[in-house]
Amino acid sequence: MERAVGLFVTAGLACLAYFAFQLGSTTIPQSQTVLLLARFTSAAGLNSGAQILIAGVPVGTVGPMRLDNNFYALVELHVRKDLALPIDTVAAIRGRGLLGDKYVALTPGAEDKTLAAGDRITDTESALDIESLLSRFAFGSVQNQTAPQNAPQNAPQNPPSQQATPENKPSQNP
Amino acid sequence: MPNLFCRPLAAIVLVASAIAPAQAATAPQTFLEQGLQEIIKIAESNRGATPVQLARKTRPALERLFNFESLTKRAIGGGWRDLNPAQQKQAISLFSEMLIRSYAARFDWDAKLEMQLSPPVDVGSGRIEIPAQTRYAGSKANVLYRLENTAGRWSVYDVVIEGVSMTANYRAQFDSIRQRSGGEGLLKLMKDTLDKGS
After folding, report:
1. Which of A71, A88, A89, A111 to mutate to probe the B interface, most B CBs <10 Å?
2. Count of domains in chain B?
3. Chain A residues touching residue B15 (CB < 8 angstroms)
4. Which of A1, A129, A132, B2 is buried most, with the most CB atoms less than 10 Å from its CB?
5. Mutate which of B167, B178, B186 to disrupt the A interface (most A C-beta within 10 Å)?
6. Distance between CA atoms of B72 and A137, rounded to whole angstroms?
7. Helix (H, G, I), strand (E, B) or coil at B115
8. Range of the domain at B99
């Protein structure tokens, strides 16, 4: 009986290993990829090893990510080297549903010049901060607090003195 | 919920623009700020104008701030190569008009835009990004202006609002239209949209 249980457990582990191998084998070998960089304001939820897709087709995997000097997320993308991606290709962090894994979606652009190894994709869309958007929706905007000062009834147009503002300062009606 | 996007968008567009003739020597942040101020000023001096009228008034200033050719090319993406030169020219004209009108339609003369620009971030290849925080009609939004320097001249080629890129958003929409109806179908759709709003 004990031997049967042992065999059953061993067979289970073998199946697990097989499926893990099968899933892992969908990853494109690094020798067939080229390294690109993409800079995002937020890479929240994106993990190293996540898929990179073009039109839903896997074309690479996400590598390590780090912070750059301006505190942006710099993400390594290992993309199939046979693809000639235009320099205006957009890299966007997308999710499979609200709770699904994050992946990077590439949308090739129109430029004739193409990205080379080590190039940086500058047109990016970061992960949407759903919680932040929902909380704004749930708790309302700041309109109610600012309305008395900013939009009195029958208020005249803003005087010109409110329009000119120095650089780097909050400006009104710029 | 849509207001979170629409209002800042309206501000932005009205945003755009303009620059002094000696723009090549102007710092990108000043260029952007002056451009935005000029657009708002024009819009405010045309209180009550219809979206079409407002679009007509603001277009010259917007054209100094935005690179509509680059913007259209990016918005259409891969489909751009399928268009012949005449169609590309038509696409730029239609898309820019569509864009300006859609923002002009959302302009609120009673709302006040507050904007704080952060220092530019160099992203390489003659491109920079200028992050901004805006408050318009009671809604706050994080906006990122993407500028490129072409032949010594700065211009805005994309605006990202709360993480959503304007060109990427249009590219996704245009891609599916182009696959269904081709480049000609895309141009027709843009033209029909404009005709409806006239």
Report:
1. A88
2. 1
3. 174
4. A129
5. B167
6. 32
7. strand
8. 2-197
